[in-house]
Input
Amino acid sequence: MIIDNHVHVGWFTDGYHSPREVWYSEMAAGVDGIVVSSTSTCAELYKVVVREMRELIGIGGNRICPILWLTPKMMKRRYALPFMLRSKVRWRGIKMHWGAHPEWAHNEKLVERGLGVAKKLKVPVLLHTGNFENCHAGKFAEIIQNNNDLTFVLAHGRPVDEAIEIMNKCSNAFVDTAFMPMCDLHKILNGGLMEKVLFGTDAPINRVYYKDMDTISYIKNQIDNVRSLGGCNANLIFNHCVYQTPNSIDL
Output
């Protein structure tokens, strides 16, 4: 059983990735369930996002875990967040991307409201991490420590030393392997943190960076890489999904 904990659908810089394209690429690569957010959110296309999630669920059923990607504009527009929450999509997590939306980094009240959505829905929080001042893993240490009633996933785990430090200190902190260098994953596993790792690919964003490799091949390659490092215990990583609630992924 393999769950891809970091998948996208929708509009991106290279064009549109439809629900059907995304789901069938994952299935063809051997993935059984996906945790997915929509890049159409970045264009504030709320109706498109809901339509994409409904279509995915129509195709994949309970093997789809929809993630509600919050943006500052969504939080400020009176109709936007209520529309998403009343969409009949059963959101399994929320996402905040401080790199794509820098306002999060200097608006504490907005962050509190975002975390409040996660607490209301009783779902984990996916945080993009990168090697930048406004979104490096250490930037989120205090938030994770002060909200131990929430589960946090540090997407990409960057920089890895900061992510490891947080995972060692906080039982509610995890990472996913989306676009994670194998040397970073090796360091995490050597630190005895395998149970803190979720398999993720960032598909189909791979098409932007690896133009000569199709998404199916890319996902298969990521699976092989994790399997080579995780050895006989790699299934612990492939099976891991903190976004699940009872019967949320029916495999």
Strands lie at 3-12, 15-17, 33-38, 64-69, 93-96, 125-128, 152-155, 173-176, 197-198. Residues 215-230 form the longest helix (16 residues). The chain has eleven helices and nine strands. Confidence is low (pLDDT under 50) at residues 246-251.
